[in-house]
Design goal:
The protein is mainly α and about 200 residues long. The protein contains nine helices and no strands.
Length: about 200
């Protein structure tokens, strides 16, 4: 299996490509092609890093969480009836495991450079396009890191889940269920302001 390190930066401008490539890799793996799993790991690991990072785990603890997530997929792949859901299944599993580890107090937060965790999926692009999109992604996540802690954690989680469970998020973030949506809206508004002040994206 491909190593689970942070990997290349994530292409934040094309989130739909993530789920499409994840589905393709999963389908090939289930059909008997081992390379499908390698491709799935390559595509989704940078996304999982972003999700796990919201829980302020050490780098070692975060890597353990991601490894546990992949092991869970290997053991329970039959539970994924709809291959399109594999991306959401992985992010939800990683989030729950990260919360469990964080709640257990098994590790302390350590700063991690965005350039190590920020993600980008491998795909054929021109050098110019690669530079522009990497710069765009870096600006977005740099702006996120400048927001209040609650906003940083919330946006890093919901950015990679199409339908996050607000009840679980409320418990994990220590927020009332009814405040998740409004808080997300305020955080996105702050992010837009920060991006405008930084020169836009």
């Amino acid at each position: 299996m491909t190593r689970i390190g942070a990997g290349p930066p994530y292409d934040s401008a094309r989130p739909g490509a993530v789920w499409s490539q994840a589905t393709d890799g999963f389908n090939r793996w289930v059909a008997g092609d081992p390379a499908g799993l390698d491709d799935l790991v390559s595509v989704m690991t940078p996304v999982l890093w972003h999700v796990v990072r919201a829980y302020r785990l050490s780098e070692q603890a975060a890597e353990d969480v991601i490894q546990t997530t992949w092991l869970a997929l290997v053991r329970r792949r039959a539970a994924i009836v709809d291959p399109v859901a594999v991306g959401g299944w992985l992010t939800t599993t990683a989030r729950r495991e990260a919360w469990r580890v964080s709640s257990a107090g098994s590790s302390r937060a350590t700063p991690v450079d965005d350039e190590d965790l920020a993600p980008m999926l491998p795909r054929q692009r021109s050098a110019e396009e690669s530079v522009l999109q990497e710069d765009e992604g870096n600006r977005i996540w740099a702006a996120v890191d400048g927001l209040p802690e609650r906003c940083r954690r919330l946006l890093r989680i919901v950015a990679f889940e199409n339908r996050p469970d607000y009840r679980e998020l409320a418990t994990e973030l220590g927020m009332p269920v009814g405040s998740i949506g409004p808080t997300r809206g305020r955080c996105l508004a702050k992010l837009r302001v920060a991006l405008m002040q930084a020169g836009g994206v």
